[in-house]
Amino acid sequence: FRVLIFFVRHVNCAVSMVVYEGYVSRQYFAAGKGASLCNVLGQLIVLVLPFVVVFAAGALWVKEGSFRAQPDVSWPKKALLVVRDARSEALHPQTVAWTSMAKANGFLGPALTTPHLEFRAQDADGDGRTDAFHFDLRIPLPEPFRVTAVELLLLFRYKVEGDVRLEMEAPCYVHHSSAAPGRRWETEGVLQVRQTQPLFWESVRSNHSYFTPEAVHGMGDILLPRLLQKYMGRNLTTAYRESMAYWSPSGAASTMDEFRMSVTVNVPSEEYTYLRGPWEVLKFAWMQYFTVAYPVTWIVWQVKGVLVKGGIVATRVVSESQPKYKY
């Protein structure tokens, strides 16, 4: 009898133990027009409200984009140099010049000088792209000549690989003038991009150069003001922004047979704006829409739950769905 009581007690304990658990979701159906209207209104809010919010914020059809990239810049040994003497005596030469093009040098006549130029490119971070260019020039001068102004136009090959592929000839105009004659000039700055309109979303390739043997037919084609006007008139161009300069005076009465100049051009990362392609516009619009639609859907679902469970709208339970088992 005691054994039987012990066995019955253990069976009762086993019966009261949780050996299996399942969750049942209850389905509520509309029992009147109010519940149906509430359901339709919730779906409209989920579909329309995110569109209205994103459109009002101006983030739906964003046609312009931007990206930052380090340009790949090289110097194809194209340059134009002008050194001036501001004295007004007609017997003294007032300008000497030089270009990297033999055909253009033929138009300079007695104003031609031949500088000694040393050039080196620096890749500071070892990424395969040049970060700085260093130019050292020693310019022979006729007698008597006192330098009061110097101009140097460097033409670089400029490439960008990013959301837009870009290739162009980039000008770098470096200049300085002083009332006191000088014997040496040092300058350092950065090559900056100047953009007036966004680039097209496809590749942009502009190899057109205004300083080639085919484009030079006379002295007027190598004048610095005319060349600069052509380069600066483009949608996308470059300019030199000076950050440091030093002019070493030579004295008002002294003349020299040589002028020295040192130029350092740094190439930083730049930001470029462009027009997005149609697929990119749609992708960005969908991302913005989904960002707003997700929290709106959650809020609408919670509000519907309060209305249904609180009995504010008339509903009826049609059936219990199949349980979702949990082991």
UniProtKB/TrEMBL annotation:
Q: What is its main location?
A: membrane
Q: Name one GO biological process term.
A: cilium assembly
What keywords tag this UniProt record? Cell membrane, Cell projection, Cilium, Glycoprotein, Membrane, Transmembrane, Transmembrane helix
Organism superkingdom: Eukaryota
Instruction: Give the record's membrane topology.
Output: Multi-pass membrane protein
Q: Which GO terms describe its cellular component?
A: ciliary membrane; ciliary transition zone
Q: Where in the cell is it found?
A: Cell projection, Cilium membrane
Give TM regions. 40-62
Q: State the function annotated in the UniProt record.
A: Transmembrane component of the tectonic-like complex, a complex localized at the transition zone of primary cilia and acting as a barrier that prevents diffusion of transmembrane proteins between the cilia and plasma membranes. Required for ciliogenesis and sonic hedgehog/SHH signaling.
**Family the UniProt entry places it in:** Belongs to the TMEM231 family.
Name the record gives this protein: Transmembrane protein 231
Q: Which organism's genome codes for this protein? A: Eutreptiella gymnastica
In the record, what lineage is assigned to the organism producing the protein?
A: Eukaryota, Discoba, Euglenozoa, Euglenida, Spirocuta
